[in-house]
Each structure stands twice: as structure tokens, then as C-alpha cells.
Amino acid sequence: MSPHDWCEQVGVGEFDNDAYYRVIEKKIIGQRNQFTLAAVEKGTGNLAGYVHCVREEESPTLLTIGCVKVDWEHQGRGLGKLLIAAGEASAAERGWTFADTSLTVLKRNCRARRCYCSRGFEEVPSHGAWPNMQSRRLQ
């Protein structure tokens, strides 16, 4: 999904960072089983990326990364890896015990798939355009 499409879907202006924060806060307020972490660019305060993590009640030992988004200006610099690591660390700090982390990515998003593989994720066989990638964490 392009940033323009996402902004239209949630009803914010494409370059309105304050609106981004309000939408993210609205989605997570009062939700104990999920959180979103934002990476903010120093100096400008612009949103550079975010990670959204969920712990499903039916799979409490699985941390699901619902979304990792890195602004195109910041891609290729390791921010995606940093956001994933921060999401896992924050989940552990919240007392969530999990053995696995999973996320879903488009098959055609080769750059993101390489990023996830470099963090230890492995592709799980799937059908369609959304391969599931899962990581085994050694405890």
C-alpha cells in the first residue's frame, strides 16, 4: 500500500505527521495486547517509520508484527531491522513471553524480505501474494 493510499484509508493528509500520530494513538489506546512504536527523525520530528506488534490471546507464545513501515527516504539504512528489534524488546519489557515472532510480507517486496531474513526470519510456505515469514527465537 502506498503512503498516499494509506493516508486516504485512515483519513489523514499525506504529509500531516501530527495526524499520523493521532491515528496511531487512536488505534492503540486501551489495548493491552498490542502497541505501536514510532521512529522519529531527529531535527525535523518527522515520522521515519513504525512497527505495530500484537499478542494474540489464542497464541500467547507468538509475537505478531502486524506492520513495519519505513518511509522511503529512510529505507536501506537498517531502520526496519531496528524497529523489529525494538518491537521484540518492548514486548519482552511488557512481560510478554514469546518463542516466535511472525510477520507477513508481499512476495514482490524483495527488499523487505531480505531485511527480515537478515533478522533471522524464514519464509513459511504459503499461497498467494502474502508469504508468511516466521522467526524462531532461541530461548
Automatic annotation (TrEMBL):
GO MF annotation terms: acyltransferase activity, transferring groups other than amino-acyl groups
Any single Pfam family the record assigns to this protein: Acetyltransf_1
Protein name: N-acetyltransferase domain-containing protein
Residues covered by the N-acetyltransferase domain: 1-139
